[in-house]
Amino acid sequence: MKVDVVLFATLAKYQPDGAGGRHPRTFDLAEGATIGDVIAMLGLPDEPRVIFVNSRHADEGDALSEGDRLAIFPPVAGG
Amino acid sequence: MAATAGRAPHGGPSVQLPLDDPPSSDPRTNAELRARLRACTVAIIGCGGLGSNAAQMLVRSGIGRLVLVDHDRVEEDNLNRQFFFRDQIGMLKTEALAENLRRIQPDVDLSLMTERVSSQTLIELVRSADVIIEAVDTAEAKAMIMDVCTRDLPDVPLVTASGLAGHGSANAIVTERLSDNLYVVGDLTSDVRSGLALFASRVGVAAAAEAHMVVRLLLGYPEP
After folding, report:
1. Angle, to 10 degrees, between the axis of helix B200-218 and the axis of helix B49-61?
2. Residues of A with CB below 8 A from B49's CB?
3. For the CA atoms of B190, B96, B72, B84, what is the dihedral angle to 10 degrees?
4. How close A1 gets to chain B, by Cα (Å)?
5. N or C: more exposed end of chain B, with fewer CB within 10 A?
């Protein structure tokens, strides 16, 4: 199944093409793949992050579906 | 164009129209806009550099009720950017901020929640809000608040901040809509964990941007 993945801010450099930027890249994933599988595949650091699928809240254990748009945002400190 | 059309000719419900061209009253204090904001509740999680400054701007903008959440006390090194005064050192931030806000607007309705926010307590603290501001300092707490609010209160807009440290350009601080009801203010990358300092001027830009996004949302404008 095909899923679009958007990585914001400091995570953008983990896109496999190394080009950075926040435009979506399309991944061909096995049926039943979870968000956690994508995070592991990309090697994202174990830092605070917030996850959305199709602009709604999601958890790492959630399974993805064909055509989903996965977005991962890493907040940074300061206030 | 009138801000509110009032009763439809057939006696149906009033229709809300855009507010770009308010009626003839003084545009600086437009009574109709203020009446709308006065009926609103904004929860502010964290009363430090972001939250204390956003709070005073929201009170000056006419928001009727604020829920202030913070467990901490005012310290001397807060005075470089937070809306407190030297004689308030040692006070609970919620109580010191309430004192300052009431000096601006004695009638403002303030609910003080002096406790540390956790994923278990957060929703009960902010449930009454029309809009929530995230104004904490650690990345972990920001992520937790974004996570819990977007999961459990998906219909309540959440305005957050990420990337406001350092002496980078103020112009790099922007407001974006990350998902249906999640807004983020900041440059998204400048991080105090990288050793960047916090300046009143740049933190203030972010606080103002958070406050202004709240005002826009409450007036019916969902885009930054």
Report:
1. 40
2. 79
3. 30
4. 23
5. N
Determine the residue among B72, B177, B191, B210 to mutate to test chain A binding: the one whose Cβ has the most chain A Cβ atoms within 10 Å: B191
Look-up: residue for tokens 């949302």? B217
Query: The whole model's pTM is what?
Result: 0.89
Shortest Cα–Cα distance, B31 to chain A (Å): 33
Number of H helices, E strands in chain B: 6, 7
Question: Counting runs of H as helices and runs of E as strands, what totals does chain A give?
Answer: 1, 5
Tell me the β-bridge partners of A26. Answer: A4
Nearest to B57, CA basis, from B145, B168, B133: B133
Verify whether the Cβ–Cβ distance B188 to A8 is below 8 Å. Answer: yes
Per-residue pLDDT of chain B (224 residues; tens, 9 = 90+): 333 333 333 333 334 444 554 555 566 668 888 899 999 999 999 999 999 999 999 999 999 999 999 999 999 999 999 999 999 999 999 999 999 999 999 999 999 999 999 999 999 999 999 999 999 999 999 999 999 999 999 999 999 999 999 999 999 999 999 998 999 999 999 999 999 999 999 999 999 999 999 999 999 999 99
Task: Assess contact for B163 and B173: CB atoms under 8 A.
Answer: yes
Contact across the interface for A75 and B198, Cβ inside 8 Å: no
Helices marked H in chain B — which ranges? 31-38, 49-61, 93-104, 122-126, 139-152, 200-218
Q: Which of B69, B137, B146 to mutate to test the interface with A (most CBs of A within 10 A)?
A: B146
Record: contact A56-B198, CB cut-off 8 A = no
Interface contact flag, B137 A79, Cβ < 8 Å: yes
Cross-chain Cβ contact B198/A74 below 8 Å: no
Inter-chain CB proximity A75 and B137 less than 8 Å: no
